[in-house]
Amino acid sequence: MKGKLITFEGIEGCGKSTQARLLAEYFERRGKEVFLTREPGGPQISEKIREILLSNENEEMLARTEVLLYAASRSQHTGEWIMPAMKDGKIVISDRYYDSTLAYQGAARKIDRKVIDSITRFATFDIKPEITILIDIPVETGLSRIKRKDADRLERESIDFHRKVRRAFLELAKEEERYIVIDGTRSIDAINKEIILRIEERIIP
Ligand SMILES: Nc1ncnc2c1ncn2[C@@H]1O[C@H](COP(=O)(O)OP(=O)(O)O)[C@@H](O)[C@H]1O
Ligand SMILES: [Mg+2]
Question: Is the separation of the CB atoms in 178 and 130 below 8 Å?
Fold first, then answer.
C-alpha cells in the first residue's frame, strides 16, 4: 500500500487526540493528504460498537467480550476506512489502534497475549503501523487532565489499572522498532515540535 499509517498510543489524558490533530494539520500544511481517525470508532458500525464499549451501563461486560468487541470495531474500521485511505496514498493517523488492546485487555485485564495477537491479525487484515507515537505520562497527570463527572467505563478504572496500562505501553515500545516515545509532561507545543522532528527523521517521503 502506498499510504502510511501512524498511530498514537498512551493512557487517558496523555494528549493523543490533541497531538494527532496537530500532526494532521502539520502534514496538511505540507500539502499531504491526511486521514485522521480514532479508535474505538470510525465508520458507523464501529462507532456503534464504541458506544457499547464505553457505556457505563455495561459494567458487567466480560474481558473477553471487550476484546472481541474491540476487534469487531477495528476490523470494520480497518477494512472500510483505513485500508482504502492508505491505498489512495494518504497518511492515515489513528488516535489509538491495536496496541491499546494489548495494553488494556492484555496487560491490565490479563487476556492471553497469543489470543489477542491472533484476533488482532484477523481484525487488522495484518496491516501494521509504520510509526507509533507513545505519549508517556504519569497516570496521575493524565487522569487529572480528564477529570470530569461523566468519565466513561474505562476512564473509571482504578489508578492501578492505568499504571498497568502505562507500563504495558512502555514494554511494547521496547519490543517494537516502530515506536517513538515522547515525554508527555511538557507543553502541547513542545510535544508537537518533537513529534514532527522525530517523524521527519524516519519518513523521507
Ligand atoms: N501537553 C499538555 N499539557 C497540558 N494539557 C494538555 C497537554 N496535552 C493535552 N492537554 C489537555 O489535556 C486534556 C486531554 O488531552 P487529550 O489530547 O484529549 O488526551 P487523550 O486523547 O490522550 O485522552 C485536554 O483538555 C487537553 O487540552
Ligand atoms: Mg482522546
Answer: yes
Distance CA 137, CA 16 (A): 11
Query: What's this model's pTM, rounded to 2 decimal places?
Result: 0.95
Q: What is the DSSP string of 158-197?
A: -HHHHHHHHHHHHHHHHH-TTEEEEETTS-HHHHHHHHHH
Q: How many A from CA of 82 to the centre of ligand 2?
A: 18
Residues with CB under 6 A from ligand 1: 10, 12-18, 145-146, 187-188, 191
pLDDT digits (tens, 9 = 90+) for 25-70: 999 999 999 999 999 999 999 999 999 999 999 999 999 999 999 9
d(CA 82, CA 170): 25
How remote is the CA of residue 159 from the centroid of ligand 2, in Å? 18
- At residue 128's C-alpha, the angle toward residues 126 and 134, to 5°, is 145
Are 53 and 77 a contacting pair, CB within 8 Å? no
Count structural domains, the chain.
1
Q: How far is the CA of 12 from the centre of ligand 2 (A)?
A: 7
Domain CATH for 177: 3.40.50.300
Structural domain span for residue 129? 4-202
- Contact (CB, 8 A) for 20 and 43: no
Judged against a pLDDT cut of 90, whether residue 199 lies above it is answered with: yes
